[in-house]
Amino acid sequence: MRILLTGGAGFLGSHLCDRLLDEGHEVIVMDNLLTGRGENLAHLFGRDGFAFVEHDVTHYIYVKGPLDYVLHFASPASPDDFSRYPIRILKVGAHGTHNALGVARAKKAKFFLASTSEIYGDPQEHPQRESYWGNVNTLGTRGVYDEAKRFAEAMTMAYHRERGIDTRIVRIFNTYGPRMRKNDGRAIPNFINRALSGEPLEVYGTGRQTRSICYVSDLIEGIYRLMHADYHEPVNIGDPSSETTMLDLAKTIVELTESKSEIALRPNAQIGDDPHKRRPDIALAKKLLGWEPQVTPEQGLRQTIEWFREH
Ligand code: NAD
Ligand code: UDP
User: Fold this and answer.
1) Ligand 1 centroid, distance to 6 Cα (angstroms)
2) Percent residues over pLDDT 90 in the chain
3) pLDDT reading at 9 higher than 80
4) 75 CA to middle of ligand 2, Å?
5) Where in the chain is the domain with CATH 3.90.25.10?
């Protein structure tokens, strides 16, 4: 297939790009490098079938030649970015998704949206099934991201229903691994880098809030399978067995890095609406895709720590 991948210079996009090229597809990455980096793709320049276009997808997307699939991954994703780039996040979720759907329609290509567990907000159902409608504060600092992705899902379903586009939606739960930015702001890179440099790990709020963490290779496998499934409603991909409090996650990372860092609790006023708990129900992914996570948190965290040590 000839594939357009928006956001392909980012953490997840660059891993997905590797996988698509390894499967023999041609990939055009389109990215404005807002939170992504050329070095995530440096190993691919000059490889057959790979092309990079620097472009902001909130503006009209032009691609020469045919396309079989449009994968829309462009969007900042770290809660730190929610206050850094609130308007750009809303624009890439709205205009960016519209343009990506537009190019898919013009090329008669399939379309795949990277959505998020964040659309469930601070969930009042646990674990979260795809049928849960969510509990989002539109006005909070997270609202820009949550609402942008909720709009993107609605837009994708509208193009599917009204224009007959062959669409997929994945709801990604907290995924981690090599190529996250050191100063990304998300818990795992923050904790690892502080542990490696001997600084205190800052756990926001009470530290009792939970997340379920999924290693990047498992997520990419789930995405690749969903690309090939005949299913148009959203599908959760994440690792339910890894649910952990942030305090325990910080302790685990201190242990795995053999660090002398302390763990400090820090008020999280500016983070607003931090979900209290999060765990995916992945019954649908298991049934539809025959998918479930293979990498344990200890294995995944060790590999990620090793990568950060080297970089
Ligand atoms: P990331 O910040 O590393 O990657 C996002 C990429 O999008 C970057 O390369 C950035 O430069 C690019 N981008 C942003 N705005 C753009 C624009 N207007 N035009 C072109 N490119 C633009 O984040 P990530 O973790 O790799 O996330 C990738 C996608 O997956 C995002 O859509 C995110 O919402 C979604 N997601 C990620 C997670 C996770 O745990 N990593 C969880 C849920 C959803
Ligand atoms: N968090 C933390 N310390 C940090 C970064 C994040 O305690 O240095 C907390 C954050 O408040 C949230 C959880 O860790 O409760 C997961 O945050 P992350 O930014 O990784 O992703 P989120 O799931 O909130 O989008």
Assistant:
1) 9
2) 97
3) yes
4) 18
5) 187-209+242-278+296-310
Given a cut of 90, is residue 267 above it in pLDDT?
no
Active site residue 145: yes
218 pLDDT above the threshold of 90: yes
Q: What is the CATH number of domain 2-176+215-239+280-289?
A: 3.40.50.720
Q: What is the CATH number of domain 187-209+242-278+296-310?
A: 3.90.25.10
Q: Is the pLDDT of residue 32 over 90?
A: yes
pLDDT of res. 273: 87
The number of the ligand 2 atom at minimal distance from the alpha carbon of 176 is 20
Closest protein CA for atom 23 of ligand 2: 174
Exposed (0-12), middle (13-18) or buried (19+): which is 78, by Cβ within 10 Å?
Answer: buried
The tens digit of pLDDT for each residue in 135-183 reads 999 999 899 999 999 999 999 999 999 999 999 999 999 999 999 999 9
Question: Is residue 270 pLDDT above 60, yes or no?
Answer: no
- Is beta strand 243-245 parallel, antiparallel or unpaired with respect to 201-204? unpaired
Mean pLDDT over the full length of the chain: 97
Q: Residue 272 pLDDT > 70, yes or no?
A: no
CB 148 within 8 A of CB 94: yes
What is the 249 CA–ligand 1 centroid distance (Å)?
23
220 lines ligand 2 (CB under 6 A): no
CB 257 near ligand 1, within 6 Å: no
Ligand 2 pocket test, candidate residues 12, 35, 142, 203, most atoms within 8 A of CB: 203
- Determine the distance from the C-alpha atom of residue 116 to the mean position of all C-alpha atoms in its chain, rounded to a whole number: 7
Would you say the CB of residue 57 lies under 6 angstroms from ligand 1? yes
> Boundaries of CATH 3.40.50.720 in the chain?
2-176+215-239+280-289
